[in-house]
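Handout, section 4.2: multi-component inputs.
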Amino acid sequence: MLASGTLSPSSLSVKDLLWQVQWDKEKCTLCGRCTAVCPVQAIELGVHRKRTIQIPPLAEIGPATSSSNVYQVYHGIGQRTDPAYACNGCAMCNLVCPNGAIIPQRSDEMDKLRFHLSRGGQARSRGGRRNVPDLLNLGTLDRIKFIRISMLTDPALDAGRHEFELRTLLGRVLPPEENLRLYRENGWIPPVREIYPLIIGSMSFGALSPNMWEGLQMGVAYLNEELGMPVRMCTGEGGCPPRLLRSRFLKYTILQIASGYFGWDEIIHALPEMKEDPCAIEIKYGQGAKPGDGGLLMWYKVNKLIAAIRGVPSGVSLPSPPTHQTKYSIEESVAKMIQSMYMAWGFRVPVYPKISGTSTALSVLNNLTRNSYAGGLSIDGEDGGTGAAYTVSMDHMGHPIASNIRDCYLNLAKLGRQNEVPLFAAGGVGKNGKLAANAAALIMLGASGVQVGKYLMQAGAGCVGSESDRCNICNIGLCPKGITSQDPRLYRRLDPEKVAERIVDIFLSFDTELRKIVAPLGRSTSLPIGMSDALAIDDRNAAERLQIKYVV
Amino acid sequence: MCRLIALTSEEPQSPMLAMRALDVMREGHDGSGVGLFLSDLGGAFESLKGLPILSGIFSGEGVKRLDRYMTSIGFVTRHNISIRNTKTPPSGTPKRDTYVICAYEYPSAWADLDQKEIQERLLLTRLRLRQMGEEQEDMIVYSFWPDVIMVKEIGDPLKVAEYLQLDREELKARVILAQGRQNTNYAINLYACHPFFIQGIASMTNGENTAFVPIREYLTSRGYPGYVGYQSDSEVFTHIAHYMIHSLGLDIEAYKHIITPLQDEDLESHPDGGFLKQLKHSCRRLIIDGPNCVMGRLPDNTLFLVQDRKKLRPAVAGGRKGMYAFSSEMCGLDAAIPDRDKRKDFQPMHLDTVIVPSDRSEVRVCSQVEPLALLH
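Output:
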């Protein structure tokens, strides 16, 4: 900008941006890879003009000599400051740079960019999850300790050599008296699945790239068929590829139906040709990342394949309504939807709802306990991730998962139905990398299992997104790692085979860590659901709220 | 660890036999307490088999309150052998006023009640007395049931037994359960002392149940008035057996399928896999964990013995026709029944349930992988 130029309100300097690209002229080879790879075109070729003042040697200076200006041009990198092109910190430039000449760095103060992300009246939307940057201020789940260590009164178990049964149940479990009576009388007993307590949470085909989805599916198939771990994966709202619907691998899949009903035309038509029943049906009523908001697949990502599976035209945004349009009251809606879904598969497949973390979870739960078909309840806490949501929803809406799941469990225990309606916890599990510890804490607070999505993108495919507002562009199909992109030029960066390998690695190491937690607690014969006597936290208020021990 | 001995004999035996067996196993326990359960009684109670016997520890004031209360609801004392000891108790044992062992005639108003109703009322009476005792700290009640006597006290088992003169002629039984050591997990409390009893079912455990809290939550939420207490993590074993028999109508062979169910692969190949899978799912909150050896007595005086899923605690079963015993250690069994064929001693493993039926004809072992008798 020239001194005489004008400033618009959104004229920002690099200093005003959240991410500032540091570029080293000395190291730069001018290869151009960084500008080519940048998903948001935040950097461009910079043609810099530089003046050097050349002063003659002292001896040669005479009255007639004068200093001279020499103008030189050099090439390099320029960072754009238009908010539409602000660097998102993904650091792909650094990844591809042969000399390490370039890296984005986070501003040392709060950015001014955030005040200008409403251009055109559009509120900011993005992917990722709640941006809580301070890693030192760990979340509640990370601060929960496991304190009941077996040593002398009961010997500690050997996590490596003893027999463990780390399985959980998904589906409506009847009270023992009724269950045995119906068994004797050949009555209908609701279907129940024995599954691994770490479930791959709902990430749709569409939100994820085909390569990412394929990698997850291959990993799940390997875990089940080669390693005997009954890991299940939920489709999210986006249907299911036709070949998977007609394959034996469908039994490892939880089909989700949500308010947009995307993909269900395809699913219903595939019913007569299904070789296996799906594991379960998840009815999505809410999502932790954007409570009270429906699914959203932005037009960038709706290519021909996605459009075909979802039964929509390509190139249009697909915002699901915040609520199921058939909904009139909770009783009617839940009963009708759950029973319709049961009927579709001849009452052989468990059906359960998923809601976002909310202070009204107890009302939902109480209603489900009275509906003898409800196969569980999944609660997605405020730290849940998403492919696309308004920032305000992600950052400010929702309920933390720990107290939500605890309240629900204690309520079930009060009703004596803690074994009947399994609770599943989701939303920020493993957010700070402590997947097994978070999962174990939630299980001991009362969850029958946990659902996890974002962690698998980070650990399984190298997602660079973080809660420091890094990257978070899953919504516009420009994922630089090809995880959430529908552009073959991007998603071919991701090798599905390698993703599958990583998924297997993650589950195996999770399994080891979970044993390393439950074995010292003297638990191995069953998953320690509700074993709250093992838990403590160094915060008196949190301890009181969760009804666990307070330790310092 | 606790040390346990369970005896069943055609001839009534003195509880001292069990006390001496506990004493030879003293290296395995710390002598901090003793619990004793007697049934199929001999002596004076032989002819009073149908009448409920109250067992507990009462202060002088407690006895008066007890008498007033029992009279008010119509019970009449029939035979009282309560122990009032004026001697100085052994070191570590508190001085008590009265160890009540008293048989009552049923209230005349109960004459037309069916057996089930009588059993429920006996339970409620015991719970009411326990509650009264907790309010004034003047009564501790262990059992109120026909043909059952219980004694529990703090202190070295043999010294306590000698102090209470348990060798008296009128105190003999054909079924004896005895346990040495007080609870170590929680404060010393006589209600935490094994064996535990509910409606004819008694059990005692050597071990620690690490799944205690969720199981306690599940049992208390069954809405049954007898599922209270839980001063010890081992009390749930007794209540699970009660729940299984009374609410689910299953035999003791199913007990291990509830507390330590088979893993899924084994269930697939089990002849009763379908039933057992349902049982495992619906009773999932009753699965125990940790090292545990459970010995118990059923209402018909059958004795049973089960181990945890990993068999982390010792136990041996043995004896001769007419007299069998389960013991934590071989030396305890030697002390109780020296004249047996030791080659037939049996140490149950992780799948086994050992049963000595009430006719004392044999030691029966059933494995979890075998078909369930009750279903065929």
